[in-house]
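By convention, the token line describes the chain's fold. To illustrate:
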Amino acid sequence: MEATTSLLDAAAVGDLVMLDPLSEESLLRTLQERFSRGEIYTYIGEVVISVNPYKPLPIYTPEKVEEYHNCNFFAVKPHIYAIADDAYRSLRDRDRDQCILITGESGAGKTEASKLVMSYVAAVSSKGEEVDKVKEQLLQSNPVLEAFGNAKTIRNDNSSRFGKYMDVEFDFKGDPLGGVISNYLLEKSRIVRHVKGERNFHIFYQLLAGGSAQLLQQLKLRPDCSHYGYLNHEKSVLPGMDDAANFRAMQDAMAIIGFAPAEVTALLEVTAVVLKLGNVKLSSCFQASGMEASSIAEPRELQEISQLIGLDPSTLEQALCSRTVKVRDESVLTALSVSQGYYGRDALAKNIYSRLFDWLVNRINTSIQVKPGKQRKVMGVLDIYGFEIFQDNGFEQFIINYCNEKLQQIFILMTLKEEQEEYVREGIQWTPVEFFDNSIICDLIENSKVGILAMLDEECLRPGTVNEDTFITKLNQIFASHKRYESKETLNAKHVTDVSLPLRCFRIHHYAGKVTYNVTGFIEKNNDLLFRDLSQAMWAARHTLLRSLFPEGDPQRPSLKLPPTTGSQFKASVATLMKNLYSKNPNYIRCIKPNDTKTAMLFTPDLVLAQVRYLGLMENVRVRRAGYAFRQLYQPFLERYKMLSRKTWPRWTGGDREGAEVLLAELKFPPEELAYGHTKIFIRSPRTLFDLEKRRQQRVAELATLIQKMFRGWCCRKRYQLMRKSQILISAWFRGHMQRNRYKQMKRSVLLLQAYARGWKSRRLLRELKVQRRRHLAASTISAYWKGYQTRRMYRRYFRSDACTRLSNFIYRRMVQKYLMGLQKNLPPMAVLDRTWPPAPYKFLSDANQELKSIFYRWKCKKYREQLTPQQRAMLQAKLCASELFKDKKALYAQSLQQPFRGEYLGLTQNRKYQKLQAVAKDKLVMAEAVQKVNRANGKTVPRLLLLTTEHLVLADPKAAQPKMVLSLCDIQGASVSRFSDGLLALHLKETSTAGGKGDLLLVSPHLIELVTRLHQTLMDATAQALPLSIADQFSTRFPKGDVAVTVVESAKGGGDVPVCKKRGSHKMEILVH
């Protein structure tokens, strides 16, 4: 513990261990004084006391986070960030699992404290996409759990109605990996009833206020809170709380955690079922036997609930209005009275909501839990109810106070254990500390054989008539002589009268005070029975989530075993929690509520004093002060107080312990006040520490005076030295100034004499120059007149005879220059197809203008060709070749100009059937199209696929995709076409070739121009010889039976695109084309 000024301020000491004298009054006065100054946090050693200010304070900024990050716990003012940082660094650096226990009564700020701890840890841990995602999921679990587990009470607008313990797991670097949440004792009785001025759980109001019209219609809900019985038919608007915004925040939080939209919808549907169950009304009726029975008064709500959960309304009505009782091997259906029906309805609502809350916690754990196999460190945060003493205390207060007794037990034992371990570690003799051991109270409640919880379970399981009277009677018999148990009967036996203790009540002397419990409702709340018919009805529902909440309703797995009681479940949970806490290093935050009206900065001493007693703060201080109240490492102790001894001030060269011993020996404190450990100095009483701090403050004042004196002397010396230096500098500058002025005067005098001398010389030279200039001007004038005379003489003799020619040449050159300059400004566009050119302005420029036009057009074409891609260049070369072959020779050529040469018209790459044709030629494909082959026998045409490659020409059957003829290009002797716009082509084959024996080929191609052009180019590339092409109306072809003269006739009666072939004898053929 470090002794800083803030902690040792006598008016409002920051650490209550330093209080002197120690009493409830001084402790309360210190808390009130600090609270009035806006300091809501106070220490008891390493325990933080937090007083709720009921208003936002500017002490949670990022700057504050940075201030408390990696700080010494006691080196700064008390703050919740200090304990969070100390726990986080202990976990990260010393590899010790931590737990932070946050306790206090409702409204004391426990939930906010747990949020601050989690937000601080998230802020100081490292950053990264995966780490930030884990942090966000851990932080966003709070809005979801608050919506389903918090409610407005008279004391607190956002009261947690369940206990929460979260284990946050970290890796070896201190980065959060995930976590696990455990919940304890949800106040499910609030579902069916709450007092006036309070509210049910937040989720119901948030759903009605924030749900869209479509969502509410889907859930069959009305947005009016006053419509629902479980909401007390009240329109509850909570000042300062926006239910609609909180609902949207909860939905966003669920999305961040990882809830699927279907899961959110199912969750809200079950929530709506719970809310609507409160509107199911029962009416009384009588059976034929005269027994009272019940029935559904208004079936509409029942039908809507059945539609939501996918259940037959009659099944649900039977489960609500009747009960199956098993007698030996027989099942008897018994009708329920109205009161029994309402009990079953409320029990169903409570069970659904309680199990839904457990499912929600497990679902969050599924998203945030750590994958197995990773090395991890754990920090637990416990946010649980504080000790409660009301005017009427029931089963819930009994369970809550039992939990607080266990927490007090672990707190005292672990505090004493930590103190003892430190004393042993430092080699200081341990003095046994007297303290109240509350294990007798814990045993009174939890003893497995004769404890109150065991007696309650026994009474719940006992056959026959069971009620609270038999239970209190049994307690009075067993605990009649117990020191911590009282009842009306036990006091009467001792002849003690206590009118404050009613008959059906018992009193336990807790560590925080006496609490009287009313046993009414103990057995019912401990049993928490749900009729088997209702469980089976929920199992029969088609709603997946609701069905999973009631596994015991499965008729295939009937069980006659009674479920564990609430008390035994809670006892087991507390035992697990205690085991978990014992395995970790504890850190404590004690939350205190300053007033009952939730007024900002209002401190009610009586209320705070009661909580100080409930929380056992005095006991905590006494345990901490047992032995030595103050301890500190030697190095910071010596650093702080070394100025109190001349031997250690200003610098101590020895060891830190030796320095501390020399310092304290010179101060002459009583030996019994001091103890020297291995690494720390121990001081017994706060008075000694205050005396040490007082001496330090006096010495600091003396040292400050000395420092001021030395500083002022230094300042005076520096000022004198500066003034002396300034005087010397000024003198030097003044003497220099005087010398410079004298030099300037002498220089001006010399310059004046030089100026007069130079002026006299210059004037004499000027006079001489003027004389020479006049002579030169005279000679120049005489020379000019002479040259003019000679020039006029020569002009009259020679120039007049040749003047016309010279002038015309000059005018001609000027006109040409003007023409070229104008042409430069009016050049036509760069488009290749644009053949426009400015006309010649003069007739003599016509030839030059035409030549320039030709040069400019060729230059444009050259620029255009340079921009072409290899594909475009190849296509233009093909077009050029076609022009050379067919222009002005065949009528079809004009139609082909606008059609690009695609080459491939069959889609070979898309048609697997045709792909094997290309493999026949085994070389590069040039062109592929569908043609018509003319039969040489009868003149009819048949379809064929033509494939032209770099070395072959292939004709194939389009149906079978099989080659019919494969020609080598060197076998083609020539080709003939007509002058008309038809696609007829005659391929003349060499007689010596293999295919030439059958004669020439007559083909009809829809792309004749492209086919012949590509054939011509391919032959040129392959054989370096041009294709012999004949363009005529008559040509001779070679058929197997001899040569045939073919005549092509253009006729309007042609057969469309396909020519009509007619044989005129054995050696003539007439072809009609369109």
About this structure: Confidence is low (pLDDT under 50) at residues 1-11. The CA atoms of residues 910 and 1055 lie 32 Å apart. The first strand starts at residue 41 and ends at 44.
